[in-house]
Design a protein that fits this description.
The complex is a heterodimer. Chain A is built from no helices and 11 strands. In chain A, the strands form 2 sheets. In chain A, strands 2, 4, 5, 9, 10 and 11 form a 6-stranded mixed beta sheet that branches. In chain A, strands 1-3-8-7-6 form a 5-stranded antiparallel beta sheet, with no helix packed on it. Chain A is mainly β. In chain A, strand 6 (55-58) and strand 7 form a beta hairpin. Chain B contains no helices and 11 strands. By secondary structure, chain B is mainly beta. In chain B, strands 2, 4, 5, 6, 9, 10 and 11 form a 7-stranded mixed beta sheet that branches. A 4-stranded antiparallel beta sheet of chain B has the order 1-3-8-7, with no helix packed on it. Chain B starts with a strand and ends with a strand. The chains are: A mainly beta, B mainly beta.
Chain lengths: 111, 113
């Protein structure tokens, strides 16, 4: 059973479009993290959301943590080809436990 | 600049060989992890370690073992490589506190022929 479900699995959009990626669970997490991975490289952290209902913005990227701390979303405004990559959400269940990763959303932004 | 370094980016090994994947971190992190990443399956945890000489099985430990003799180094061992172990292997480290960033190595793409 996958603890974190990401959707969609694949997304191909035109430059300038907006998109939202979802990360859902039935479990509560102390925080949720979003990573971006480029081909041939390891994932790199984009943001950590800790408080239920929290919204964080990183330029054109907006991250939200659900009120119940079970889900999160990533919204990209006016996507650019440089946004292309694999987006992973990861849940932190607390000290002494490994991060739980979703399967990822592979985004392709076409110029 | 913090770093997690994996010893090889690409490896090709023969079935039955013993394979060592090395990972070194320079951040004095307590926790280190080995994942494999396959299309459609995401990152799956193989083994992790919370301290020197300590190890815990992850979700898919079969066919693998690990060694952590020093805090900065965490090795993944494929005792007898098989073709179904062809994958991208990622090492990560994490400090011993909650809600902190995991730092990943660049990955090792292993092909077993």
């Amino acid at each position: 059973t996958q603890l974190l479900e990401q959707s969609p699995q694949f997304l191909s959009i035109q430059e300038g479009e907006n998109l939202t990626v979802y990360c859902n669970s039935s479990s509560v997490f102390s925080s949720l993290q979003w990573y971006r991975q480029e081909p041939g490289e390891g994932p790199v952290l984009l943001v950590t959301v800790v408080t239920g209902g929290e919204v964080k913005k990183l330029k054109r990227l907006t991250f939200q943590f659900g009120d119940a701390r079970k889900d999160s979303s990533l919204h990209i405004t006016a996507a650019q080809p440089g946004d292309t990559g694999l987006y992973l959400c990861a849940g932190d269940r607390g000290p002494g436990t490994p991060l739980v990763f979703g399967k990822g959303t592979r985004l392709s932004v076409i110029a | 600049d913090v770093k997690v370094t994996q010893s090889s980016r690409y490896l090709v090994k023969r079935t039955g060989e013993k394979v060592f994947l090395e990972c070194v971190q320079d951040m004095d992190h307590e926790n280190m992890f080995w994942y494999r990443q396959d299309p459609g399956l995401g990152l799956r945890l193989i083994y992790f370690s919370y301290d020197v000489k300590m190890k815990e099985k992850g979700d898919i430990p079969e066919g693998y073992s690990v060694s952590r003799e020093k805090k900065e180094r965490f090795s993944l061992i494929l005792e007898s490589a098989s073709t179904n172990q062809t994958s991208m292997y990622l090492c990560a480290s994490l400090p011993g506190t909650v809600n902190t960033e995991a730092f990943f190595g660049q990955g090792t793409r292993l092909t077993v022929v």
